[in-house]
Amino acid sequence: MYSSIFIVASLLPLLALAAPQVGGIFPEPTIVLSKGLSSSIATADSTPSALGTATATAASSSTPVASVSLSLGNLASASDSAVEPADTSLANNRAIIARLLLAPKAPERIKLIQPDAAFKFDFASPPADTDTRGLGGHTVRADRESFPALIGTGVSMSVGFIGPCGFNTPHTHPRSSEINIVVQGALQTQFTLENGARTIHNTLGTNQMTVFPQGALHTEFNPNCEDAVFVAGFASEDPGVQSAAQTFFGFDQAVVEAAIGQDFTFEGKDIETFRSLIPANVAAGVESCLRKCGIN
Q1: Which H or E element spans position 167?
Q2: Strands laid side by side in the 39-44 sheet
């Protein structure tokens, strides 16, 4: 019997959404459960609060055998109460990160993460050393180092703020695939999975998403004169990142010259100059876009 109460109660939000509107307001659903597994649904015509309150009782007795109450309409919205800032005291804290990684069970990790606000991460005001900045914008990462509450969850996230004509230079994530959704503006994306695979090109508008497979070399470019913002989710607390150009030109000069070929060689002083000109991961380009937007 109790399992049937739980099942029906778990469906209450869906039942509330599916109920017909009365006078522009959702009616309040009341769930009446019999002693068996069957249930019937009646609708009270009283004025509810938002989605309303649902109560489950045993139909065969005046004394409730079990009562399940869902008050969905009484939740205060963020605008109704002050929003506390995220607590960043655990960010980049090697001692607490080590303890969290060694904790054998989740309840022990929960005890270590104090206060409750340490379970919040503010991408607009992140902890120190969590963002990568360049002339074309910046990205902010929430991983197990910057947001230790992620330890044990297997996920992480980044948010990219890409300025006009800015682009996130080609890079890979060695330990995770990436799902990437544009929440403001538009982005042109490209990725190549490996040698022999074709390069995938897409233009993403607001609320459109793409996927970059694990290890695929990929990039995002803002072709417009307005800012673009993307949110990237990862199936790893530590997805890692490796920028292609910055990594390649970090190799010894002989290796770089050999890889490029004999028809394109550098003098020692030239390659050092070139290395110094490689932009940070979020760069300002492409030339045609810069001219269009009047960016010097």
Answers
A1: strand 166-172
A2: 39-44, 28-33, 53-58, 69-71
Residue 132: pLDDT over 50: yes
CA distance 176 to 111: 28
The widest CA-to-CA distance across the chain, in whole angstroms, is 92
Query: Residue type for 213, please?
Result: P
Tokens read off for 48: 């509810």
The candidate with the shortest Cα–Cα distance to 139, out of 206, 211, 224, 239, is 239
Predicted TM-score (pTM) of the model is 0.69
Strand, coil or helix: 44? strand
* Residue whose entry in the numeric block shows the structure tokens 């790893």: 236
- Cα pseudo-dihedral 221, 223, 225, 230, rounded to 10: -40
Of 215, 194, 211, 193, nearest in space to 202 by CA: 211
How far separated are the first and last CA of the chain, in Å rounded? Answer: 71
d(CA 190, CA 87): 36
The residue among 142, 215, 207, 146 whose CA lies nearest residue 180 is: 207
Q: How many whole angstroms separate alpha carbon 231 and alpha carbon 140?
A: 10
Q: Single out the residue of 137, 132, 294, 275 nearest to residue 225, CA to CA.
A: 294
pLDDT, tens digit, 9 for 90 and up, residues 162-188: 999 998 989 999 999 999 999 999 999
